[in-house]
């Protein structure tokens, strides 16, 4: 697999019979040119978008609809072993479904890739397979309900994708043995900053454009929206896409809150002059939410400080007031999104619960823009954790288990990102220093950046930019980190938005308005030290041991680690979104980043299937002879049986507690087991049919003798 640097010879080419193979592991010569040529040939010549890479399914976005997802295709893959048919998302879904039914263990599909690579489409087809094969008891339209929860409220136009999901979601489909009973959606890292800022050539969330485009509808004319929309509306141009599960009675309130967010963005702050009551946008905001304008003006332009002896208000600068306004808008939209997902979950909820589940993780991949800030940092941190999980699953645990089982193995080096994660979440790491800076009264982005330079300047994973600016490499602009991590919307959110059963529980305040008595007490004040919790502390993990997680991200890691993992790596073949155009440079970049090339090496040289001796005997006892069952222990019994069944010792290895198989050997054992059980069934049928035939013959003979005796008489 490794070629000496002094060699000037090009890599060897695979035979034509192997080039374009279904599984990249089957290639005789494993190197980047061979892998790339095989994928290119399958994609362009055979129009095949799916290829196996050991335990990974590589999916290349064709950028055009293909007739390979119909119901008859689903049933064609149902019940088939992985590898029996062409690679397909349905084949991987069937493998997950089969393992769940066979072993009673929950499964997870991790779908990753760049924006625009087709992650959401892959999740959609996997859900379609499970609901079709599992015979969804709750609702035949579960797939549509799950998918409808995101396009308008969680998707937006970016430079890479016109319908990019700007949040991560884990869709857990519950099963009662073999039937689908319901589903639950858990969301992660909604990009709330998009509500108040969009980069050049990018847009806000689709729902805002749809809302403006529908402003002429009678029920929306009282929201103060501009007539005629804003142009470029995604989706249905004159209809607001509200997911199923949202009652009509709540929809108008939902639109009112969304319109209030739009008006809040138009509230202007000039110099040190406080907000004016004549501000039309401010008036609409207060009217739609039913709050007093005086209180809104006060808390947008002042910050409440609590000392040991008194409480007083400190005027904010213009920039601080704008930041406070934007923070409130982002918090409100985050609450709307959470409420929307909760309503979808309520519509998909199953009263009977579930025995096992299959989860589908669809989360955006690494992001590197011209300007990267707090949001990209959190997204990339989450992806580093997912990449570490992949490393542990495919590489580290693989090799460590071979050592523990004393299986002969050649170690393969891989890129371990543990040190990078320690730099982010470890003691005195980036997040520790950020949280410390947020607690300082005069904490600033520049002060935090200087602490990073002093603490981590010698780290190989941290680099100070050459030009004099507050940033670090991958270059993240430190501006806004401290303020975003503080989440200054906490006090305003406590004053305006009360979390309850409704979307925004303001109905009780519409008549009386918001009064000073409504402010939270000092003990429960969100800005107080006791209840203060920064955003990054909700993202980071404090890890005394691997099982203790305090954030949603690490709870996700724990959940994934408790299931059997299946990987789908989505590849974007070109940046122009042209159908069946293959840019080799872009493809190989993605193959390197997602670990596909390393997986090829380890899968080809390793033993991907492993069973404990007890599990092997429980499953394949029908293949074991009486003489072999007389062995001293389970290991000896399995060794004797495999020596007879597989014959080639290189196809398997017997460890201390487990038996390891090369790729394809379990399928061969399954075929032998099927033949053995079929022969046993035929033997039983033969004896039963013989007994029935003899009984029928005896009755017929007795009847004939009776007739003959009477006739002769």
From TrEMBL:
Q: To which species is this protein native?
A: Buceros rhinoceros silvestris
Keyword field contains rRNA-binding: no
Q: Which domain of life is it from?
A: Eukaryota
Q: Which UniProt keywords apply?
A: Actin-binding, ATP-binding, Motor protein, Myosin, Nucleotide-binding
Q: Which residues are recorded as binding ATP?
A: 113-120
- One GO molecular function term? microfilament motor activity
A GO term from the CC aspect: myosin complex
Instruction: List the residue ranges of the region (Disordered).
Output: 510-539
User: What protein name applies here?
Assistant: Unconventional myosin-Vb
Q: Which family does it belong to?
A: Belongs to the TRAFAC class myosin-kinesin ATPase superfamily. Myosin family.
Region annotation (Actin-binding) maps to 553-575
UniProt-listed InterPro entries: IQ_motif_EF-hand-BS, Kinesin_motor_dom_sf, Myosin_head_motor_dom-like, MYSc_Myo5, P-loop_NTPase
Tell me yes or no: is RNA-binding among this UniProt entry's keywords: no
Q: Which GO terms describe its biological process?
A: actin filament organization
Residue ranges of the Myosin motor domain?
19-674
- Upper lineage ranks? Eukaryota, Metazoa, Chordata, Craniata, Vertebrata
